[in-house]
Specification:
Pathway: Amino-acid degradation; L-proline degradation into L-glutamate; L-glutamate from L-proline: step 2/2. Belongs to the aldehyde dehydrogenase family. It catalyses: L-glutamate 5-semialdehyde + NAD(+) + H2O = L-glutamate + NADH + 2 H(+). Keywords: NAD, Oxidoreductase, Proline metabolism. By secondary structure, the chain is of the alpha/beta class. It folds into two domains: about 280 residues, Aldehyde Dehydrogenase, Chain A, domain 1; about 190 residues, Aldehyde Dehydrogenase, Chain A, domain 2, CATH 3.40.309. Helix content is about 40%, strand content about 20%. The chain is built from 16 helices and 23 strands. The N and C termini lie far apart (about 50 Å). The model has no long low-confidence stretch (mean pLDDT about 100). It binds nicotinamide-adenine-dinucleotide and 5-oxo-L-norvaline. Nicotinamide-adenine-dinucleotide (NAD) binds next to α8 and α9.
Length: about 550
């Protein structure tokens, strides 16, 4: 019972620490990295609040240092998924009945633990496990995850305030219920923040969750799970299991209490989930919510009026930060013929200053790609481009998996705007550029819109206002996050709600109210104070 209406004002974004040489935070992060590397972690699943060790242990290696072992995770089976569902359903009645201010406090405390006591450990596990440099880990694992938690508490309290009007003699109210059943969160390798947001946004709304992270993100996922438990998350509200995709699908998508999936990952996997859920619909007690943010082939369209230095920086950062492994990464660029040579020359010179190596050397801008599968796929595309007369490698192209999965930042120039690397999502440090006739901006916009099935992020760079206006209108459906004179990456919670349409997902905008509505099922309650006692309308009594 609550004796008041409590308020959660709009928070400020968590300040991003800079890790400059000599700074306190750099020292603290380096200490955390050394400590993490010194011990081999033994990583259990967490089911019903219990640490579950299956004994089926798999090593975790830093992608940039294949011979080092960070620890071992205990892989699960179908039986563990079933136990996770049972634990979730057992926790459900108490959790959804818990007053909102008590639920909110857990997530706000977790945000504060991330911001203070565990900041360098969530960043450290992300750096080592996912091969992110210090700055990329800070904006993801610390700041974005903290923002997701704090902003979602604010947004949900705003939703709870939304109530219908009442005519005289009655009161109407809206109850923002959790969904009936359990929610499945399936999360990708590339953002610790997404791994944390997908289960917590649903749980915050009163739902109980089974969370399956990518195997390559388990090291930081378990760190966050421990933080949630320290913040007071009751047993069974979120259950963390380490199984492969088909295993989670076989159990969850066949369960009558399956209430929804919160997914981020590739389009192919999401399409498969959607088809399975569709085919199984008669098995479920309710129509499940299907929320998925998926792949991208994100564009940078440069107008003949653009500022060359701004273009070069947007491409260098947009394409190569975190080795291009952001769903938002610039992977195809359209340059106008009047500026193309200057942009290419400066861009190649800038990219060739980027140092590549481990995350512990803070001089490295580029680290390793996530795993061998990704390395082999990227190398295949790069090798094919090297042999193809229709493509030219302007810089990069060297790959080595001897010590870690290193792929040089690579720029491919093509004359065919539909060349394979202009169309398909590669998910790595590969940018393809195409030069169009500077006076054919309209045609270039058509190309941008029609080249890939995705519509996640995109940017236009121009000084000419009418070109910006034209691109904003013509490319309305080509990107869910559209940037003017900036790179297409780096969305901030509360500032640029994130998500795309077409083959890029359901566009339910992570870190916004739109997303939270998907985890709520409203009940309308009307109470009449003076109930009618005669069925006859007044006009019948003439
Ligand atoms: N739109 C966005 O907001 C966004 C954000 C991050 C990543 N992504 C996309 O994610 C992809 C990269 O991440 P990834 O490599 O981890 O993606 P992925 O699709 O390979 O894996 C995502 C998750 O799905 C699981 N999975 C795989 N096969 C499955 C199956 N058959 N059934 C159920 N689950 C299954 C994986 O184990 C993992 O947990 C890219 O396509 C990228 O664009 C999109
Ligand atoms: N929100 C992140 C991308 C998340 C996907 O990988 C960005 O805007 O760069």
């Amino acid at each position: 019972m609550s004796f008041g209406t409590f308020s959660y004002p709009m928070p400020a974004n968590e300040p991003v620490l800079q890790y400059a040489p000599g700074s306190k935070e750099r020292d603290a992060l380096q200490k955390a990295l050394a400590e993490l590397k010194k011990k081999e972690a033994d990583i259990p699943q967490y089911i019903g609040g219990r640490a579950v060790r299956s004994g089926d242990k798999h090593p975790i290696h830093p992608p940039h240092e294949r011979n080092h072992v960070l620890g071992y995770y205990h892989a699960g089976t179908k039986a563990h998924v079933q136990q996770a569902i049972d634990a979730a359903l057992k926790a459900k009645p108490t959790w959804e009945a818990m007053p909102w201010e008590e639920r909110a406090a857990i997530f706000l405390k977790a945000a504060d633990l991330l911001a203070t006591k565990y900041r360098f450990y969530i960043n450290g596990t992300t750096m080592l496990g996912q091969s992110k440099n210090a700055f990329q880990a800070e904006i993801d694992a610390a700041c974005e995850l903290i923002d997701f938690l704090r902003f979602n508490v604010h947004f949900l309290s705003e939703i709870y305030k939304q109530q219908p009007i009442s005519a005289p003699g009655m009161h109407n109210r809206m109850e923002w219920r959790a969904l009936e059943g359990f929610v499945l969160a399936v999360t990708p390798f590339n953002f610790t923040a997404i791994g944390g947001n997908l289960p917590t946004s649903a749980a915050m709304c009163g739902n109980v969750v089974v969370w399956k992270p990518a195997n390559t993100q388990i090291y930081s996922a378990q760190m966050f799970m421990k933080i949630l438990m320290e913040a007071g998350l009751p047993d069974g509200v979120i259950n963390l299991v380490y199984v492969d995709g088909p295993t989670i699908g076989d159990v969850c998508f066949n369960h009558p209490d399956f209430a929804g999936v919160h997914f981020t990952g590739s389009t192919g996997v999401f399409n498969h989930m959607w088809a399975t859920i569709g085919a199984n619909t008669p098995k479920y007690k309710s129509y499940p919510r299907i929320v998925g943010e998926t792949g991208g082939k994100d564009f940078v369209l440069v107008h003949k009026s653009a500022d060359v230095d701004a273009v070069v920086t947007a491409l260098a950062r947009g394409a190569f930060e975190y080795q291009g492994q952001k769903c938002s990464a610039a992977s195809r660029a359209y340059l106008p013929s009047n500026l193309a040579d200057r942009i290419k020359a400066k861009l190649v010179a800038e990219v060739e200053t980027m140092k590549m190596g481990t995350v512990e050397d803070f001089g490295n801008f580029v680290n390793a790609v996530i795993d061998e599968k990704s390395f082999d796929k990227l190398k295949k595309y790069i090798d094919a481009a090297k042999k193809d007369r229709k493509a030219k490698i302007l810089t990069g192209g060297n790959c080595s998996k001897k010590d870690g999965f290193f792929i040089e930042p690579t720029i491919i120039e093509v004359r065919d705007p539909k060349y394979v690397t202009m169309c398909e999502e590669l998910f790595g440090p590969v940018l393809t550029i195409y030069t169009y006739k500077a006076d054919e901006f309209e045609k270039a916009m058509d190309l941008v819109d029609g080249t890939s099935p995705y519509a996640l992020t995109g940017a236009v760079l121009a000084q000419d206002r009418s070109a910006i206006d034209a691109a904003t209108k013509r490319l309305r459906h080509a990107a869910g996050n559209f940037y003017i004179n900036d790179k297409p990456t780096g969305a901030v919670v509360g500032q640029q709600p994130f998500g795309g349409a077409r083959a890029s997902g359901t566009n339910d905008k992570a870190g916004s109210m739109l997303n939270l509505y998907r985890w709520l099922s409203a009940r309308t309650i009307k109470e009449t104070y003076n109930s009618p006692v005669d069925y006859r309308y007044p006009f019948l009594q003439s």
